[in-house]
Each structure stands twice: as C-alpha cells, then as structure tokens.
Amino acid sequence: MIQQDLPWRALFFCILNNMKELVQKFYKHTLDYLKSLNWIVLLGIAVFCIVLAIVNNVRVSDDKSVDWIGTQDVMEKPADIL
User: Is residue 57 within 8 Å of residue 66, measured between CB atoms?
Assistant: First the structure.
C-alpha cells in the first residue's frame, strides 16, 4: 500500500527501479532460453524448407511457378538491327 507521506519522486524512482529489475530478469531468461535451443536442428529445418520450396517451384508448370529474385524476361532478338 502506498503511504500518503511518500513523495512522488521517491515513488517514481521506486517504480523505475522495479521496472529495471523486471527488464533484467526478462533479458536473462530470454537469453537462457535462446542458449538452450538446438540451433543445428533449427538451421537444418530452415535449409530443408528452402530446398523443398526450390524443388516445388521446379516441379510445377511455368504458369504456376514463381519468378526467382532478380530474374528478367528474356526478350527475342529483333530481326532487323538498324
């Protein structure tokens, strides 16, 4: 319970200090969780998904396949060059 004689400045610094501790605990727990992950398995899953996407794009017909990043339409060479 908040005391009536407690100045607002002290109350503000008390709340700020508690917030700082909460942020530090959240950061520590998040960092511990990220360290506990098996990163090799996660990277393997990502590479597997990329390979499946490429295989699927090659497998489907041209009207359903997506354009690769940076590709351009090849235009026919004009018959008469002036």
Answer: yes
Which DSSP category does 74 fall into?
Answer: P
Q: For residue range 8-54, what is the model confidence (pLDDT) as tens digits?
A: 677 777 787 788 888 889 999 999 998 999 999 999 999 999 999 88
> End-to-end distance of the chain based on CA atoms, in angstroms?
90
Q: How far apart are CA 48 and CA 11, in angstroms?
A: 54
The dihedral through the CA atoms of 15, 20, 24, 26 has a sign that is positive
H helices, E strands: number in the chain:
2, 0
